[in-house]
Write a structure and sequence with these properties.
Elements: H1 2-12, H2 24-30, H3 36-54, H4 61-87
Helix pairs in contact: 1-4, 3-4
C-alpha cells in the first residue's frame, strides 16, 4: 500500500509514468527523484515489498519496519512540495 501511494504521488508530479504495468525494479529505475537518498528509500521499500510478496519466508521484523519507516520518509518528502504550493494560494 505504501509503495502504491508513493508511485501515485510520483505519477501525479510527473516523476513517473503511469505505474500500473511496471515491475518493482522498473518502478525504481523509472522514478525521477531529486536525491540519491530518495532513490535509496524507494529501493529499500520496493525490495521489502517484493520479499513480502514473493518470498516463502517472513522477512525480519526489524528490516521490514526500517523499510516502512524509510518509505514513510519518502512519501512525506514527496508531499512537502505539494503542501507548500497549496499553502501559497
Amino acid at each position: 500500500m505504501l509503495l502504491e501511494l508513493i508511485a501515485a504521488r510520483l505519477a501525479e508530479q510527473d516523476r513517473l509514468p503511469p505505474a500500473r504495468a511496471l515491475t518493482v525494479h522498473e518502478l525504481t529505475r523509472a522514478a525521477r527523484l531529486p536525491g540519491e537518498s530518495d532513490r535509496e528509500r524507494l529501493s529499500e521499500l520496493a525490495a521489502a515489498c517484493e520479499r513480502v510478496r514473493f518470498s516463502g519466508r517472513e522477512p525480519a521484523r526489524e528490516a521490514l519496519a526500517a523499510a516502512l519507516s524509510r518509505g514513510r520518509e519518502l512519501l512525506a518528502a514527496l508531499e512537502a512540495p505539494v503542501r507548500s504550493a497549496q499553502g501559497a494560494r
